[in-house]
Amino acid sequence: MNSHFWGKLSSCGRIHPLVDHALDVAWVFHSLAARFRARLSATTATHLSEAHLHRLSAVAFLHDLGKCNRGFQAKRDPNAKETAGHVFEAVAFLLDEGIHKRWPKAWTELIEEMSAWFADEDELWTMLIAAISHHGRPVSERDYRAWGDRNPARWWQPQNGLDPMQGIEELAHTIRAVFPEAFAADIPPITATPAFQQRFAGMVMLADWIGSDTQFFPYRQSEAEDRLVFAKEAAQHALRAIGLMPPESRRPHTFQDVFGFGPNPLQLALAQDLSSDDACRLVLVESDTGSGKTEAALAWFFRLYAEGMVEGLYFALPTRVAARELYGRVLRAIEHAFDDDARPQPVLLAVPGYVRVDGEPVLPDPEGRLWDDDTKARQRERIWAAERPKRFLAAPIAVGTIDQALLSVLQVKHALLRSVCLDRHLLVVDEVHASDPYMREELCTLLRGHLARGGWALLLSATLGEAARSEFFESQTLPLAQAIERPYPSLTTRSREHPVAARGASRRIEVALFPTLADDASLLPELKTALAAGARVLVVCNTVARANALLRAVEQNDAISKDALFAVNGIICPHHGRFARADREVLDAAVSARLGKDTPAGPVLVVGTQTLEQSLDIDADWLITDLCPMDVLLQRLGRLHRHPRSTRPEGYTTPRVLVRIPEGELASFVGKGGQLHGPAGLGPVYADGRVLQRTLDVLRERSILTIPEDNRFLVEYTTHPDALSTLGEAWKPHVQWIEGSVLSEIRQAMASTLKDAPFWDLHYPDKSERVLTRLGEQGWDLPLATPVASPFGAIVDRIVIPAQWLPDGLNPPECIEAGYTAKGFAFALGAHRFRYTRFGLEKEDD
Q1: Of the four, 362, 520, 758, 763, which is 20 to 30 A from 42 by CA?
Q2: Buried b (16+ CB within 10 A) or exposed e, 125-162
Q3: Is residue 396 reached through a cis peptide bond, with omega within 30 degrees of 0 on the bond before it?
Q4: Where are the beta strands (DSSP E) in 717-829?
Q5: DSSP character for 522?
Q6: Residue 206 contacts residue 136 (beta carbons within 8 Å)
């Protein structure tokens, strides 16, 4: 095809004709629309036929119509003095009356005819704006009005022998030639609801990203090439290679074959007993830690996948560590569940910095793409979804953090692309009990949209409080007395609650309260006694500073053997989240090797933070923990006598937990403004003093906890609104502050989520792309100018600086200049100095 208008330009000056690129993207869109038809139809009253898909593909074909303007076409000349973009210029082409006067007849007639494709003729304009917004951010009317170019018509005037309107005319003629079915008579118009517009926009974003990838769509090879035939074949190949088109066979092997053991009652319920009808699109699983919820979730996925209800799985966890720990289990299950020709691939660890595809690490290449070390063409295609975090959800099977899923409903670039990819998955959300009001509101928004489009979701929790449960299911909150009587363990659907038989024997855990939150020295004799007896001791602190301070105090005590302290490569250290990525992998492996299932007996003391309570399969003889909310405490208790062992030392054969509490009344730490300012993160980490007080009340009343029988009571009595409303007069200022804080968090979450508005009104106010999935600043993730060796021998090339350590207004540098010290390395940011040692990252002036 001899066209003067180019759509893609290579670094060496080769061009890809605009019409060819438009065909590539349109046929990828068509293939995607055929896959996603049911979920796309769920957003409109129109039953989408094949003719409708051709019409939508024709609109997608026009996504780059703005590239016809002469300012964009001038970019082919490296010496051009005046160039332009193609997004706002395209909007101007559609809306500017002065430009309309130059519209070619073929375009005018095309637009008149296409307007009838939609129930309201104005919907065509909105759909075209949605297609034009394929770079990820919606182009809103507000954005367009703020655009700096006050004379857009100049870009559509002929100059130097190039008339932009000839390119527009070429696009108009090509649409009629390649989509004749779209122009058939008697096709019902599409009702393009705001939700439909957003689905369409996300699909165009995905189609453009795939259609722009030269591994699937190389530039035209010759004038004789039939690009239409090529584009159709290439689109099918691309979707199969990426994993967006599942294998024909979907039948998995039996539960026994997959996992090597028969299903327990919980797993059996999801593997075969629970109905897979619409009432079960949202399922809540509540069961004790270690009861096999992961296998149950995978069994549910295998059923839904075999029945054609879903085409993929996204397993969302609260932290990167939890995702990395779970990934291997999911990968093994998928490998055992399917024969090679039926296996959905790839299986992706969707965690930036730790990306793996089918178990193999994926590394950046000098061009900025991601490559396996010895990649070939097929391997390169296989890792397409791994190359950018924005593509992660395109993988058929992915394990990552909840953030990746939440980004599909927030006002951030490519949110709609993430959303259409997630639509086809079973969304599994683990450890939902840990959600705060901000996160819960975001998750509720995610679930509402996912389910409304025909999606499926599974929530996993050790025990979920009634207040949160009712929000997720959009039901009336049960009174406290009724909430406590809910069955446990259980499966909850929209239609009913399904009791599940508990696994194995109960655990009777002895609870001791120890007022040592501000006194590490008083704890040292207890630790000495336990280690001397040969116990495996786990100490979970609420903050990194506390963990580091306690370990330093332990090391300074000559009565405690250094041989019993947790170490990596012979170097004593804590376990927390303020280590570099490379070291975190080393620390996680080391703590699993020392406290994991079937590991050797012998004394060991591991001091750490919340990183020890989330997804690590570790087993301690004795647990020491700072006071924390009851649902968090139950999670920590899941690491105590987790596995049957016959070698526990005398005095530690019974599960025991020592809870460190303040010496005074908790209410005494409530400040004048109502905020809690207690020790050990009581306030900064766990802000709701009501829950902490109720947790303390229960622990004072019960010296024995029976798990899992007590779980429902323990969580409801410490989190239910009825239980929290009966605190004394001393808590009134805090209650008022909490209620205002919760309302503020919910409002902030609602302000950050996507609106159900026409595309032209869908404005993203945050141009810095820093809308957060979790309330509060997450910090700066900065590269080191020169990678350095950590105290454990790993190579560190990036460091995360907590935002609270840096003053407002300080701009992050492009990289960090670090220098070695006797104990690690150090660097400065502005007036602040930091050190990195076996204790992780610390601020020197703290």
Answers
A1: 763
A2: bbbbbbbbbbbbbbbbbebbeeeeeeebbebbeeeeee
A3: no
A4: 780-789, 795-801, 819-820, 825-829
A5: G
A6: no
Residue with token string 């809540």:
284
**Angle at the Cα of 635 (from 630 to 636), degrees rounded to 5?**
95
For 39, 174, 836, the CA distances from 31, given in Å and listed in that order, are 14, 19, 50
> To 10 degrees, what angle do helices 50-61 and 164-178 make?
160
Q: Give the pLDDT of residue 684.
A: 84
CA–CA distance, 134 with 139 (Å, rounded to integer): 9
- In one-letter notation, the amino acid at residue 574 is P
pTM, two decimals, is 0.90
Taking alpha carbons only, the member of 318, 284, 300 closest to residue 468 is 284
CA distance 20 to 220: 8
Residue 368 has pLDDT above 60, yes or no: no
Q: 160-203, pLDDT tens digit by residue?
A: 889 999 999 999 999 999 999 999 999 999 999 999 999 999 99
The HSE-up count of residue 200 (CA atoms within 13 Å, CB side) is 36
What are phi and psi for residue 841, nearest 5 degrees?
-85, 130
Contact 586, 626 (CB under 8 A): no
From CA 615, how far away is CA 431, in angstroms rounded?
A: 9
Whether 336 and 420 have beta carbons less than 8 Å apart is answered as: no
| DSSP SS3 for 816 | strand
Those residues with Cβ within 8 angstroms of residue 563's Cβ, 6 or more apart along the chain or in another chain: none
Angle at 517 between CA 512 and CA 522, to 5 degrees: 75
- CB-side exposure of 433: number of CA atoms within 13 Å? 30
Helices (H), 573-675: 581-595, 630-637
Return phi, psi of residue 364, to 5°: -75, 145
Summarize pLDDT for 239-293 with one digit per residue, the tens.
999 999 989 888 999 999 999 999 999 999 999 989 888 899 999 999 988 789 9
Alpha-carbon distance of 784 to 775, in angstroms, equals 27
For residue range 608-620, list pLDDT tens digits in order: 998 888 767 899 9
Average pLDDT over residues 121-143: 92
Is the preceding omega at residue 708 within 30 degrees of 0, hence cis? yes
Q: In what order do the strands lie in the sheet with 704-707?
A: 604-608, 536-540, 622-626, 656-660, 507-514, 704-707
Residue 732, both tokens: 């009134």
Dist. CA 230–CA 467, nearest whole Å: 55
What is the 3-state composition of the chain as percent helix, strand, coil, each rounded to the nearest 5? Answer: 45, 15, 40
Q: Average pLDDT of the chain? A: 90
pLDDT band at 341 (very low <50, low <70, confident <90, very high): confident
Which residue type does 748 have? Q
